[in-house]
Fold this sequence. Notes:
By secondary structure, this protein is α+β, with helices and mostly antiparallel strands. It has a single domain, classed as Jelly Rolls (Sandwich), CATH 2.60.120. The chain contains ten helices and eleven strands. The strands form two sheets. The protein has a six-stranded antiparallel β-sheet, with helices on one face. Helix 2 (about 135-150) runs antiparallel to helix 3 (about 155-175) and helix 3 (about 155-175) crosses helix 7. The chain is globular and about 55 Å long.
Amino acid sequence: MDTPTHPQGDxxxxxxxxxGDRWQRTLTPPTTSRRPTxxxxxxxxxxxxxxxxPRTLDHHLALVILSGSGWFSWGGREPIDVVAPVLLRLxxxxxxxxxxxxxxxxxxxxxxxxxxxxxxxxxxxxxxxVVPLSSAEPVRRAVRKVATVCNESEPHYASxxxxxxHEFLTTLRRSRTGTGRHAPTVLERFTEAAxxxxxxxxxxxxxxxxxxxxxxxxxxTAGCSPKEFILATRLNLAKELLANTDLTIAAIARRxxxxxxxxxxxxxxxxxxxxxxxxxxxxxxxx
Length: 287
């Protein structure tokens, strides 16, 4: 039986809950006219007490076992043992079934859809079904950040969530065991430099790309221009810092590339829909 979202029943969701260890929310992708190249369908974190499935999904799901151990079966295969931290990649249409071996089993997950999935597969962000990870903590932080930046009422929601999902998939790639041999992709290097006070032409020179090559690379994976990608990356980091630190707004502005706090506040308000101080208040930790 097809299951449209994973999991259902997030009526108790409220911003600020993402700081905890038991929460979930489902999201409605934008309409066709506004659909990004990568859209989030679900995000959450929870303990796992009971088996799940067998079932199939209509979207991609990155499920990470954060602690404990369990078993996993997919595509009619015999169950195998899985030990945290481990990524279970669940593509649409693949029947799967899993459950815990231990009482301390916990998981986090992000669901996503969109034409950029193919581009991320080529980049190596999406690969094997079962992927051992070297550490759970970077993934835990990345999942919480996805929940923090996903707000469907934001004026620039599409680019914000596509950029946030790119960062999440990059974190999964870097968290694989034995990833020291993997060189960063062009888009990862561009993301890392997004908060530097340099222009797009300067970025292209640093990356040894033409402007058209950079535009095509960003467009295929995030569905926006390099300038828009920089703005979304900067403001997503600002959201994370507002939600998780006590840094002043002026310090956060400087951290994300803006020396003028007033300009940063106006830009944040225009693109997010509320000023930084209100965003921080909304994302205060909730029980």
